Structure formats: structure tokens, C-alpha cells
Amino acid sequence: QAVVTQEPSLTVSPGGTVTLTCGSSTGDVTGRHFPYWFQQKPGQAPRILIFDTSDKHESTPARFSGSLIGGKAALTLSGAQPEDEAAYYCLLSFGGTVNFGGGTKLTVL
Amino acid sequence: DVQLVESGGGLIQPGGSLRLSCEASGFTFESYTMNWVRQAPGKGLEWISYISSGSYNIYYADSVRGRFTISRDNAKKSLYLQMDRLRVEDTALYYCASGLGLSIRDAFDIWGQGTMVTVSS
Fold first, then answer.
1. Interchain contact B41–A (C-beta under 8 A)
2. Among residues A51, A64, A53, A2, which one has the least CA distance to residue A30?
3. CA A109 – CA A71 distance, rounded (Å)
4. In this complex, is the C-beta atom of B27 within 8 Å of any C-beta atom belonging to chain A?
5. Choosing among A97, A105, A106, which should be mutated to test the B contact, i.e. which has the most B CBs within 10 A?
């Protein structure tokens, strides 16, 4: 079973830019893994930010973007806001199953 | 309002059984595919099961296959998860999620708030 890897934690300054990445133990992440990104704040259910690598959900702020970088899926936050402090999870598809990454705890400080 | 509400969680002894429910409102439930996702205390998300809109396609994660059974009743706008032979490691907050589309990844658009399952002696 594929293991999906994310940075355990990252810190960004208010107004700054940060990139979170999502890798796979099976090799390079490509568009055929249909990467998704979710945001989860404490005590809340996850909400979808990005689907199919770079498509934004209708509620996703413009400062979030998705891409593929160096064989990994990437979520870039440009112009971080205090309300962006949360856990971020990627999801990759592997044929008839999906796996979440372990999550990245993002601190805005 | 579009809403999913889970219920049925609680404290159960190892080896026991529990049935979770997820009731939908505010959207055409019978057209939506559904997932169950769980989150152990302080841990990350784990996808555990998927069911298509007409129940024709069902998938499970290896960790629950053979012990958990997903089902749905479109007339009642409800999703279910029958959990048997429960283990301590099944302790988690269980979310239902839904979306339009044909694949597992399509069913993460709408989320409930979760129901807690604690497996302990």
C-alpha cells in the first residue's frame, strides 16, 4: 500500500508564501494521481481546497494554488493570513483506492 | 442547507459491533457518491470506504475490509457503516462525506461533523 508523505509542520509569516508538498512511496506524483488538498481547523471537519492537482473549489480563496513540483504535488499559499493556520492534508488516488497524507500543521507566525 | 449528520457512535468493547448512520439533507442524495473517513484522536485522516450512488460499486481500505460493511438507503437519504469485530485501533471520529461523480475522489465535497467511536475494555 502506497505511503503518502507530507511535511509534519511548517511556519509562515503573515503575508508570506509557503509551499506544502505531497509525495508518494511508489514514485513521482503525477496528474494521474489526481491530487486533492484539504484544510482542517481544530474542531472542524475537513474542507476541500484543491482537486485534480490545481482546480479550486468554489469556496477556495485565490491565495491558494495547486501544482506539481519535482515529482510531488504542491499546495502554495501566497499572502498567508492568520486564519490559514490549520492542518492541511493531501489525497492521492491509486487505481481503486485513495490515501491521505499524514498532514502538515501550518503555523502563521 | 446542504448537510450531513452522523450518528451511532459510542463506547464499545473490543470484538463488539456498532452501526453508524449518516443522514443527508438539502441535496439529491440518490445522485451522490459517499465515503466514510475516520480520524483517530490527534492523528490524520484515513479513508475507509466508498459506495456509489446506486450501490453498484463498493470499496474498502485494507484496514477494515472483511470487518466493516457500507450500505445506503436512498429512500431514507441515509448512509450506513456496519462495524463488526471492532479493535482498539478503530477508535476514531468517523466522518461521512459526499459528492457528485463516479470515483472515490469525487465524494469529498460535503462533510458531516463526525461521530466518535471508542473501542475500549
1. no
2. A53
3. 29
4. no
5. A97
Asked if A10 and A18 touch (Cβ cutoff 8 Å), the reply is yes
Q: How far is A80 from chain B (nearest CA, A)?
A: 23
Name the residue among A34, A97, A100 with its Cβ closest to that of B45. A100
Residues of chain B positioned with their CB less than 8 A from the CB of A34: 105
Q: Does B100 touch chain A (CB under 8 A)?
A: no
* Whether A34 and B61 lie within 8 Å, measured CB to CB: no
Question: What is the total residue count of chain B?
Answer: 121
A44: Cβ contacts below 8 Å, ≥ 6 apart: none
- Amino acid identity of residue B38, one-letter, is R
- Pairwise CA distance, residues A8 & B35, whole Å: 25
Instruction: In whole angstroms, give the CA distance from residue B19 to residue B81.
Output: 6
Mind listing the pLDDT tens digit for each residue in A19-65?
A: 999 999 999 999 999 999 999 999 999 999 999 999 999 999 999 99
Residue B97 has pLDDT above 90, yes or no: yes
The answer on pLDDT for A95 being more than 90 is no
Asked if B67 and B83 touch (Cβ cutoff 8 Å), the reply is yes
Query: What are B24-83's pLDDT values in tens digits?
Result: 999 999 999 999 999 999 999 999 999 999 999 999 999 999 999 999 999 999 999 999
Cα-atom radius of gyration of chain A, to the nearest Å? 13
